[in-house]
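Homework help board

Subject: predicted structure for assignment chain

Our instructor gave us this sequence and asked us to write out the predicted structure in token form, then describe one feature. I got the tokens but I'm not sure how to describe them. Can anyone check?
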Amino acid sequence: MIAGIGVDLVDINFFDKMIRLTGAKRPGQMFTADEWTICNGLWEWEKATYLATRWASKEAVFKALAHLLSNKTFDLRLIETLNDSGGKPYITYHKDFKRVIDKAGVRDVHITITTEMNLAMAVAVAEQ
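My token output:
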């Protein structure tokens, strides 16, 4: 059964400007170590798109889950989106994020990501 749906749309240009203005400082505070490591291995023109899709994913997952929690909030840095060998995005269930989904009564979170021109979009579905 679906417990929540979240969607987010972000401007890739924002992340491009952030990288250019702050270097590694700001994005490193917003993303997991694995997300940031993958980003740093990309070509310069790919970095902003990668970070924008990961941020849209974090926001979409948050929107799918937060309403199910008593305090209605949690740290977005707990949400990590990686890609499998076929390129399909998935949410990792590290210990602290697993606690969040357990409290929300959710057993799985599905994610899809797309980009078009200067926009990145993610849709998350929380499943009970």
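Reply (TA_rk): Your tokens look well-formed. For the description, you could write something like this. The longest helix spans residues 44-65. That's the kind of observation they're looking for.
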